[in-house]
């Protein structure tokens, strides 16, 4: 009986000793880990390299540390002298594994693409140089299209450059088809009608409108502000006296113009 009690006490002590020797850091939350706090503080004062070492220390000690992986990936992708896109991708993927539904997930996926392009650029001879350049040009072109579309909306113009009677770009750029005339035959050619409404129309002024924007909207350019103003002298004190909700008459361009 005494021997059994000794064995039980010895086993209990051994289990207690093993538990005390285990990794204590796993019991600490990432935000409360001293190395994580030091890393955040170093980032605030612009010491990126020192911050990277602290965040790497967290990732070695904790298995659940998504924010430390994210910071490591960002720093390994941007720090001069410590740039390592391969390691950055590892940390980004660890973050996505731990936080797949976070708000940062889409941005992290884009950072992975950026890191992959960095790897391709460093290959000997730059075999993918032209391909990467074409990707950058496409992204720049898409961004420019979005900016132009937003600008058109702010100016009160249709997003897709459409006006009544067809596309303003097409109307202005199309040239009349050549007319084949037989010798000694007189042909009366009717001049092309300038762009604009065929009959007087109504338009309700919206926020951000100006006579220039309204002229572009209906006539394809801003040269007809006087025409609109003269047709609305009874409700406009000046060319700048537009108000939201005001109803304007949009006349057709006179045939002589």
Describe what you observe in this structure.
- This protein is mainly alpha-helical and 257 residues long.
- Among the domains are: 28-121, Tetratricopeptide repeat domain (Serine Threonine Protein Phosphatase 5, Tetratricopeptide repeat, Alpha Horseshoe), CATH 1.25.40; 201-250, Roll (Membrane-bound Lytic Murein Transglycosylase D, Chain A), CATH 3.10.350.10.
- 53% of the residues lie in helices and 5% in strands.
- It has helices spanning 2-21, 34-44, 48-61, 66-78, 85-98, 105-121, 129-154, 168-173, 211-219, 225-231, and strands spanning 162-163, 166-167, 201-204, 247-250.
- The strands form 2 sheets. Strands 1-2 form a two-stranded antiparallel ribbon.
- α2 (34-44) runs antiparallel to α3 (48-61) and α3 runs antiparallel to α4.
- The relative contact order is 0.06.
- Mean pLDDT is 76; it is low at 162-174 and 179-190.
């Amino acid at each position: 009986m005494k021997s059994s009690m000794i064995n039980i006490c010895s086993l209990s002590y051994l289990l207690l000793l093993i538990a005390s020797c285990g990794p204590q850091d796993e019991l600490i939350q990432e935000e409360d880990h001293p190395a994580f706090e030091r890393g955040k503080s170093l980032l605030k004062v612009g010491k990126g390299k020192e911050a990277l070492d602290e965040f790497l220390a967290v990732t070695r000690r904790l298995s659940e540390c998504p924010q430390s992986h994210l910071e490591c990936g960002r720093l390994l992708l941007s720090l001069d002298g410590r740039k390592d896109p391969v390691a950055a991708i590892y940390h980004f993927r660890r973050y996505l594994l731990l936080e797949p539904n976070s708000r940062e997930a889409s941005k992290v996926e884009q950072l992975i693409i950026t890191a992959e392009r960095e790897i391709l650029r460093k290959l000997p001879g730059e075999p993918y140089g032209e391909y990467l350049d074409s990707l950058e040009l496409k992204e720049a072109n898409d961004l420019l299209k979005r900016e132009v579309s937003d600008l058109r909306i702010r100016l009160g113009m249709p997003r897709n450059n459409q006006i009544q009677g067809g596309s303003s770009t097409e109307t202005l750029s199309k040239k009349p088809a050549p007319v084949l005339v037989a010798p000694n035959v007189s042909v009366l050619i009717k001049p092309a009608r300038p762009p604009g409404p065929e009959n007087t129309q109504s338009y309700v002024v919206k926020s951000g409108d100006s006579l220039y924007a309204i002229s572009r909207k209906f006539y394809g350019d801003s040269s007809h502000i006087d025409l609109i103003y003269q047709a609305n002298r009874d409700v406009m004190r000046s060319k700048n006296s537009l108000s939201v909700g005001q109803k304007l008459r949009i006349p057709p361009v006179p045939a002589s113009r």
